[in-house]
UniProtKB/TrEMBL annotation:
<protein>
    <submittedName>
        <fullName>RNA polymerase sigma factor</fullName>
    </submittedName>
</protein>
<feature type="domain" description="RNA polymerase sigma factor 70 region 4 type 2">
    <location>
        <begin position="121"/>
        <end position="172"/>
    </location>
</feature>
<keyword id="KW-0805">Transcription regulation</keyword>
<dbReference type="Pfam" id="PF08281">
    <property type="entry name" value="Sigma70_r4_2"/>
</dbReference>
<dbReference type="InterPro" id="IPR007627">
    <property type="entry name" value="RNA_pol_sigma70_r2"/>
</dbReference>
<dbReference type="InterPro" id="IPR013249">
    <property type="entry name" value="RNA_pol_sigma70_r4_t2"/>
</dbReference>
<feature type="domain" description="RNA polymerase sigma-70 region 2">
    <location>
        <begin position="28"/>
        <end position="94"/>
    </location>
</feature>
<dbReference type="InterPro" id="IPR013325">
    <property type="entry name" value="RNA_pol_sigma_r2"/>
</dbReference>
<dbReference type="Pfam" id="PF04542">
    <property type="entry name" value="Sigma70_r2"/>
</dbReference>
<keyword id="KW-0731">Sigma factor</keyword>
<dbReference type="InterPro" id="IPR036388">
    <property type="entry name" value="WH-like_DNA-bd_sf"/>
</dbReference>
<dbReference type="InterPro" id="IPR013324">
    <property type="entry name" value="RNA_pol_sigma_r3/r4-like"/>
</dbReference>
<comment type="similarity">
    <text>Belongs to the sigma-70 factor family. ECF subfamily.</text>
</comment>
<dbReference type="InterPro" id="IPR039425">
    <property type="entry name" value="RNA_pol_sigma-70-like"/>
</dbReference>
<keyword id="KW-0804">Transcription</keyword>
<dbReference type="InterPro" id="IPR014284">
    <property type="entry name" value="RNA_pol_sigma-70_dom"/>
</dbReference>
């Protein structure tokens, strides 16, 4: 019952933020900044980046509170924060590459994974699965949400998240196997 009340309170605060209420944003910040900071710190060891991402998260909330569609506000905030962290890490990696430009620098594991998600065989395979399966994978794998958080964010039951994640992984395995065996040309979007 307390969680439902907090979610309702957050929804009221977000509607107030949409109307430009700075006090509502401050209340949201006080309520959520602590756990967001802790989760971001687990993903990033640089305290300055974590502080910047946290600030950018709440700037984004200020600008886009109107896009909140109800449901678990914590999940919605975490998606924003996780995306801001990925953006910050990409920008930092780009700046370091430009600044140092070592000829033999190997991309980090995260950069390889993200590039694979967007441009490699994984990205090609992701484009071929249904949007419902793809959004569950992005929420649970890329954004790092729990099954419960993904269910609340996507507005579907937890069991549906689990089923879709299992189906998506199975379809991705099949597609990646076909792509790596050369059984399906990369340009074929059938």
């Amino acid at each position: 019952m307390g969680a439902d009340r907090d979610r309702d309170d957050d929804a009221v605060l977000l509607r107030a933020v949409t109307r430009g209420n700075q006090a509502a944003l401050a209340t949201l910040y006080d309520r959520h900044a602590g756990w967001l900071h802790a989760r971001l710190t687990r993903r990033c060891g640089d305290p300055e980046t974590v502080r910047e991402v946290l600030q950018d998260t709440f700037v984004t909330v200020w600008r886009s509170a109107g896009t909140y569609r109800g449901g678990e506000s914590g999940g919605w905030l975490w998606v924003i924060a996780a995306r801001r962290l990925v953006d910050a890490q990409r920008a930092q990696a780009r700046a370091e590459r430009v600044e140092y430009e070592p000829a033999t620098a190997a991309p980090s594991a995260e950069d390889r994974v993200l590039a694979g998600l967007e441009y490699g065989e994984v990205g090609t395979a992701l484009d071929r699965i249904s949007p419902e399966l793809r959004e569950v994978l992005r929420a649970t794998v890329v954004d790092g949400l729990t099954t419960r958080e993904a269910a609340l964010l996507l507005g579907i039951p937890e069991g549906t998240v689990k089923t879709r994640a299992m189906r998506a992984r199975r379809e991705l395995r099949t597609l990646l196997s076909q792509l790596s065996d050369g059984g399906m040309p990369l340009g074929d979007l059938a």
